[in-house]
Design a protein that fits this description.
2 domains, Quinone Oxidoreductase, Chain A, domain 1, 17 strands, 383 residues, NAD(P)-dependent alcohol dehydrogenase, alpha/beta, 6-stranded parallel sheet, binds zinc ion
């Protein structure tokens, strides 16, 4: 008697071979190799990746700023097409175009308050390397392999994600560009529109014009801020910031940004956004605020990093607010961002550049150090 091979097989017997970029150890280059992806569990979907953005957080984890286990497949700005859904999945179906959002539990005080970015269980769910129950979505010949990074691990031809974390997007939107909406772009735009909420005409300064800071500049433009002051060491980025809505730019190699911002705003900015996670830059972002000004800080610093400012600075109504992932619910916010993009009001594609998966290390090098590429995206042409 014979039986069908899949009927009684366990999840690994029904695994799929996919090409993925693996980080084997701290600060090691990515290695592109064949690994094995489990089939979806009842709550999961399998997504064929179209393109995945490379985010600073991928590289921070590669460099062990956070204690994520290795070897691991990183990647958390994925966009693709659903190919298979688990038996309990109801909200999406095969063929849907989706942006992969970040993982959250859905039950903790932050999640039930509509703030899943601050999920109490975010550490294990986003950085733990496995599903919540400890099982692995990925493995490879000859050893263990971690995945489920941010609930997706999208530096791979295919990814598994919990149904709740995928965001359906219109089929006519340019899917290859949309992955960064799941992290960098929603972080930058949301820090302004959702967290700081400036009134039209309010002054706002952005420190660091990487992909998050440049998205904050775009968000400030959508909010009607004026002036919008971009601060960065790189002239090329400042030029792009002007093209994307900054009314003024300051290069700290030429001018003291605190003095320049006070001059441009008549005493200090109403809002500042700090995206570099460098303590001295956070200090400058706080010191550049006017009375009752508010600084939003969004960058991931190394564990244990400390920053300082003069205590009396805060007495005059000033505040510092930490902001994670844009402060909105991705299933609500990402579609709004797609609509803005389709209407030409959120041209983040201006700072995207594509690299085939095999060139992922080249893509990383292009964005590190003095690299001029803001947002490299890995594509999967072989699929
Ligand atoms: Zn990110
Ligand atoms: Zn939660």
């Amino acid at each position: 008697m014979t039986t069908g091979p899949d009927a009684a097989a366990g999840p690994w017997e029904r695994r799929q071979r996919v090409r993925a970029a693996v980080v084997d150890e701290r600060s090691a280059p990515f290695t592109v190799e064949d690994v094995q992806l489990e089939r979806p569990r009842p709550n999961e979907v399998r997504v064929r990746m179209v393109a995945t953005g490379i985010c600073h957080t991928d590289l921070a984890v590669r460099d062990r700023f956070l204690p994520t286990p290795m070897p691991i497949v990183l990647g958390h700005e994925g966009a693709g097409v659903i190919e298979e859904v688990g038996s309990d999945v109801r909200s999406v179906r095969p063929g849907d175009h989706v942006v992969l959002g970040y993982a959250f539990c859905g039950e903790c005080p932050s999640c039930t308050a509509g703030k899943p970015a601050y999920c109490v269980h975010r550490g294990v769910l986003r950085y733990g390397g496995t599903r919540p129950d400890g099982s692995h979505t990925l493995r490879r010949a000859g050893g263990e392999l971690y995945g489920s990074f941010f609930g997706q691990s999208s530096f791979a031809e295919y990814a598994l994600a919990d149904e709740r974390f995928v965001v359906p997007v219109p089929g006519d939107a340019p899917l290859e560009y949309l992955g960064p909406l799941g992290c960098s772009v929603q972080t930058g735009v949301g820090s302004v529109l959702a967290a700081l909420r400036p009134d039209p005409g309010a002054s706002l300064a952005v420190f660091g014009t990487g992909p998050v800071g440049m998205s904050a500049v775009l968000g400030a433009g959508l909010a009607g801020c004026d002036p919008i002051i971009a601060v960065d060491l790189r002239p090329g980025r400042l030029q792009l910031a002007r093209e994307l809505g900054a009314t003024h730019t300051v290069n700290p190699t030429e001018d003291d940004p605190v003095i320049a911002i006070r001059d441009l705003t008549g005493g200090g900015a109403a809002f500042s956004v700090e995206t570099t996670a460098v303590p001295t830059v956070l200090r400058a972002a706080v010191d550049s605020l006017g009375i009752r000004g508010r600084c939003g800080t969004v960058g991931v610093a190394p564990a244990g990093a400390e920053a300082s400012f003069e205590m009396n600075t805060l007495l005059f109504g000033r505040s510092v607010q930490g902001i994670l992932l844009g402060d909105r619910v991705p299933r609500e916010f990402v579609p709004e961002l797609v609509d803005l993009h389709l209407a030409g009001k959120l041209p983040f594609d201006r700072f995207c550049r594509f690299y085939e998966l095999d060139r992922i290390n080249e893509a990383v090098a292009a964005t590190e150090g003095d690299g001029e590429v803001l947002k490299p995206l890995v594509t999967f042409g072989r699929t």
